[in-house]
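Renewal narrative, Specific Aim 1. Our central claim is that a sequence can be written position by position from structural information alone. The example that follows is taken directly from our test logs and has not been curated for this report. It begins with the structure tokens describing the chain, in the order in which they were read.
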């Protein structure tokens, strides 16, 4: 009897030991698979979504956009290659596009009905859910720098108008005369929009909007998102779109994903697009692309909203999903880079 109990104990411990070994080696394997699969870094950018059709974009304009997107990818990738943070990379990419008159952000911002440029931006750090946003800036050269300063140097998340400008000045950010933001192309769009309005015609979609954004994963597994815009042409009443609204135009959480949006802001606010994608991924364990498609096509899109998103998760999966005819977009990671504008 005693011998058989002893035998049983040996047997049970042997089985337990084997199970333990195989479990730990499985876990090890999973970890190895994860770390070998995960790229050292990943960066995704967008330069706005809208009615961007091959037949309407001249070869030289297409080339200019491709070059500008490449430059923005270079700026963010340099940070990541040098071991920098996702947060610094998204700011570098967004600033590159803010400085380029091609995009509706910073230098190339669209005009309000009153002939002003009012810019919005936001940023979020997936490490600690820290976030900063600014709305209605008229004289800060880099609105994304102001959003970052709100996140890092104030106890607030969202500042707007004169107060936000005062804060940016106090932080020593570069201020410019509002005329810096004048571009003939955007001024003409405003005149076209006003003329269309007077004739009670709908604005052509390409008159309306645009935005820039970036999401990144760094070598430490952190993700971040940043978005900057001039908003909608001909906007009135100090209107804000989704861009400065955390959870609508921008969201990042290391537990889920980082998202930056572009499109008809009112819809993106009502559908809290960026956070909804993160929530579907976190609570329903949806794949990033599936979560993004569900929100852009089945929710926001079904209600009549138009636009798109870029996203990255901590495993380096990316999504670039839009329901408009085109979206200026691109990604880069070690050994791979792609820039696209049209649907195909
Ligand atoms: N979402 C921006 C806004 O509504 C515009 C855009 O992304 O096209 O202000």
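The sequence written for that structure reads:
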């Amino acid at each position: 009897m005693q011998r058989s109990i002893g035998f049983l104990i040996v047997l049970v411990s042997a089985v337990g030991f084997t199970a333990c070994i195989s479990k730990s080696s499985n876990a090890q394997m999973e970890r190895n698979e994860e770390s070998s699969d995960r790229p050292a870094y990943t960066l995704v950018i967008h330069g706005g979504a809208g009615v961007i059709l091959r037949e309407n974009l001249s070869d030289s304009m297409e080339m200019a956009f491709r070059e500008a997107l490449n430059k923005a990818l270079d700026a963010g990738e340099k940070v990541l290659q040098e071991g920098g943070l996702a947060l610094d990379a998204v700011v570098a990419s967004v600033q590159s596009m803010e400085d380029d008159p091609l995009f509706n952000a910073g230098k190339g911002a669209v005009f309000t009905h009153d002939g002003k440029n009012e810019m919005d931006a936001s940023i979020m750090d997936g490490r600690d859910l820290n976030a900063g946003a600014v709305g209605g800036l008229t004289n800060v050269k880099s609105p994304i720098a102001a959003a970052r300063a709100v996140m890092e140097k104030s106890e607030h998340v969202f500042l707007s108008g004169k107060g936000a400008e005062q804060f940016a000045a106090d932080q020593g950010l570069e201020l410019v005369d509002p005329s810096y933001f004048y571009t003939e192309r955007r001024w003409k769009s405003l005149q076209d929009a006003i003329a269309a309005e007077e004739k009670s015609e709908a604005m052509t979609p390409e008159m309306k909007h645009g935005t820039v954004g970036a999401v990144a994963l760094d070598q430490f597994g952190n993700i971040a998102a940043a978005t900057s815009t001039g908003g909608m042409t001909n906007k009135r009443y100090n209107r804000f779109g989704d861009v400065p609204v955390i959870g609508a135009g921008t969201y990042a959480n290391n537990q889920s994903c980082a998202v930056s949006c572009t499109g008809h802001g009112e819809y993106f606010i009502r559908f809290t697009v960026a956070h909804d994608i993160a929530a579907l991924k976190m609570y329903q364990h949806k794949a990033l692309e599936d979560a993004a498609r569900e929100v852009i096509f089945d929710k926001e899109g079904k209600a009549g909203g138009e636009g798109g998103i870029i996203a990255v998760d901590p495993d380096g999966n990316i999504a670039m999903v839009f329901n408009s005819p085109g979206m200026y977009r691109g990604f880069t990671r070690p050994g791979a880079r792609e820039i696209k504008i049209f649907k195909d």
